[in-house]
Inverse folding.
């Protein structure tokens, strides 16, 4: 009995609400299927995909990756701060995250504008169809994450979270990390591998 | 303030940035091929594990959740690799 108790105490519960983890797994599954479909679609039109991929800015893709990784780091610091009872500092880290999310959106919109200005649309070819669809779908998740984090910042300012009660902060943090995790696959797949 | 944990998180962030820059450098190579593709996928797997275990905090929870995330990267990355060498 004591042994069992000791084993149970070795691990902690998932951070945040369990429901967000089901949502995270569902989202990862959907994106995972789209990544695999992209890879197999490419195998039938390798030259078109490679030529189209070379028109993307790998520098901007890399910049957005670093922005998202840094925003995830900010979220880690926000959770660490609220666990220490410093809700003010936690809010500042989250505001920094939202700012970086805004930078990601700006870079992505710049990229979309470049493509649309060049007359590229969803119908140009299969590569651009996947590129625009996957990155737009991911962008919607970034925007959703920014809204969730803004709500958490509002609640932090109202004193709704503390060192003892920070469930909501961890839930929002987990969602934001998922957005980063998806980009970790999306970036090399669309911008780099050819 | 948990300084050792924050310092560790900073090191993980630095590692992630370095791995991202490595991916960029590989992408800038003119020659593309299986080695490049596999290198980039392995880097993605490492980055995914760093984010899941140390940023999301899965290293402290049941092995099942770590296994799901690792399995995701192995299966999705593996399928992508199969499609590219097909």
């Amino acid at each position: 009995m004591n042994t069992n108790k000791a084993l149970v105490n070795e691990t902690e519960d998932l951070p945040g609400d369990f429901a967000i983890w089901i949502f995270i797994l569902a989202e990862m599954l959907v994106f995972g299927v789209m990544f695999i479909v992209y890879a197999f679609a490419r195998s039938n039109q390798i030259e078109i995909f490679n030529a189209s991929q070379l028109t993307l800015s790998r520098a901007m893709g890399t910049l957005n990756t670093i922005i998202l990784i840094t925003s995830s780091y900010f979220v880690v610091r926000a959770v660490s701060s609220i666990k220490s009872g410093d809700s003010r500092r936690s809010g500042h880290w989250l505001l920094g995250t939202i700012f970086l999310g805004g930078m990601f959106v700006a870079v992505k919109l710049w990229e979309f504008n470049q493509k649309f200005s060049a007359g590229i649309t969803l119908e140009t070819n299969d590569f651009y169809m996947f590129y625009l669809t996957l990155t737009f779908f991911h962008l919607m998740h970034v925007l959703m994450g920014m809204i969730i984090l803004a709500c958490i910042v509002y609640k932090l300012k109202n004193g709704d979270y503390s060192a003892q009660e920070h469930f909501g902060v961890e839930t929002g943090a987990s969602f934001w990390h998922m957005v980063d995790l998806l980009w970790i696959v999306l970036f090399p797949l669309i911008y780099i591998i050819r | 303030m948990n300084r050792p944990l924050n310092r560790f998180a900073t090191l993980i962030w630095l590692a992630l940035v370095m791995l991202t820059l490595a991916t960029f450098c590989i992408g800038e190579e003119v020659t593309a091929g299986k080695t490049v593709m596999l290198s980039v996928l392995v880097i993605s797997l490492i980055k995914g594990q760093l984010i899941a275990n140390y940023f999301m905090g899965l290293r402290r929870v049941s092995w099942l959740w770590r296994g799901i995330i690792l399995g995701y990267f192995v299966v999705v990355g593996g399928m992508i690799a199969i499609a590219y060498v097909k």
The CA atoms of residues 30 and 36 of chain B lie 11 Å apart. Chain B touches chain A through 48 residues (CB under 8 Å). Residues 3-85 of chain B form one domain. The mean pLDDT of chain B is 91.
